[in-house]
From TrEMBL:
Domain of life: Bacteria
Key word Transmembrane helix present: yes
Spans traversing the lipid bilayer: 12-31, 43-62, 74-93, 105-123, 130-150, 156-175, 187-204, 210-231, 243-262, 268-286
Sequence ranges assigned to domain EamA in this UniProt record: 18-145, 156-282
Pfam families in the cross-refs: EamA
Assigned keywords, A-Z: Membrane, Transmembrane, Transmembrane helix
Cleaved signal peptide residues: none
Protein's name according to its UniProt entry: EamA domain-containing protein
GO cellular component, one term: membrane
Presence of the UniProt keyword Transmembrane in the record: yes
Length: 302
């Protein structure tokens, strides 16, 4: 590949990551819209739809291209699905309780958390850059939660979003451990297959009647699938750290989409906190791990 062709491929990969961030943001905003009001989709309902549609689409892709399905490390594939199932149900639960932008911001702390976890999983020592990034991101989160004034109380929505970030960070390290044995389509399929039993117990409430809301639920699942495909394609041309930096556009996309679709208007302190936290997370993802042993700090979002 010539230098010019390589530059074009990298530019296309950045556009793919920007599109992935928009799709992830759209998924989150539509999920919050569906969860509003009585008789709507619960977090469990949306999780089941997400996994079921993802598994069916994956099977259709494998039918067209059988060589894509190459499972190898079944133990880690199942572990990825179980942790991913918890991520999805917790994230949708957060979206049902707090604004989409706030939920996305808290969840988007997972790249820095994944970098910290890698110290225990792989012996990778955190750097000064990671400490600085954590302080900056924490300050941004405080601004968003407090709208300019720190508050002691934290609701269940915030707790669910942070828990989702912790499990997403765990998933990131699991993916790193099996990257050499399994490809992205196979990992995504097992993410759906093993995650489905995890979320099924949370979907026992009466399901909504057939109607337009089901079209929106399908759009949630397809937006998530598109986000995953775009992100996976981009990783062929960009390093993990650069890709992770571009994926920090996700909470910004959620805030932008929440305005026309949900009517949520963040205040100036929340906007400043978002910018500060995104800058901190991006900085920590790009510089928080040592160059000799980079960490996969991106996991499939709910």
């Amino acid at each position: 590949m010539t230098d010019r062709a390589h530059a074009r491929r990298r530019a296309l990969a950045r556009l793919e990551l920007a599109g992935s961030a928009v799709c992830f943001g759209l998924m989150a905003v539509l999920a919050r819209r569906l969860s509003r009001g009585p008789g709507g989709f619960t977090a469990g309902h949306l999780s089941v739809v997400r996994f079921a549609v993802g598994a069916l689409v994956s099977l259709a892709v494998f039918r067209l291209r059988p060589a894509l399905y190459r499972p190898s490390n079944y133990r880690l594939l199942v572990s990825r699905g179980l942790s991913g199932g918890l991520v999805v149900v917790l994230y949708f639960a957060a979206l049902a309780r707090i604004p989409a932008g706030e939920a996305g911001l808290l969840y988007n702390l997972f790249p820095v958390l994944a970098t910290g976890m890698s110290f225990f999983a792989f012996g990778e020592r955190p750097t000064v850059h990671l400490v600085v990034a954590l302080l900056v991101a924490t300050g941004g989160v405080a601004l968003v939660l407090g709208e300019g004034a720190l508050r002691v109380g934290v609701g269940w929505g915030e707790v669910a979003a942070v828990a989702a970030a912790v499990f997403a960070a765990t998933s990131a390290n699991v993916i790193r451990a099996m990257r050499g044995t399994d490809n992205a389509p196979t990992i995504f399929f097992w993410f759906c297959l093993a995650g489905l039993p995890v979320v099924l117990p949370f979907a026992l409430d009466p399901w909504p009647a057939l109607g337009p809301v089901w079209a929106v639920a399908l759009a949630v699942a397809l937006a998530a699938f598109a986000a995953q495909v775009l992100m996976t394609e981009a990783y062929g041309a960009l390093s993990v750290s650069e890709a992770a930096v571009w994926l920090q556009l996700t909470p910004i996309a959620q805030y932008a989409l929440a305005l026309p679709l949900l009517g949520e208007k963040p205040g100036l302190p929340a906007l400043a906190g978002t910018a500060l936290a995104v800058a901190g997370v991006a900085y920590g993802t790009a510089w928080g791990s040592r160059r000799t042993a980079p960490v996969v700090a991106v996991a499939p979002p709910p």
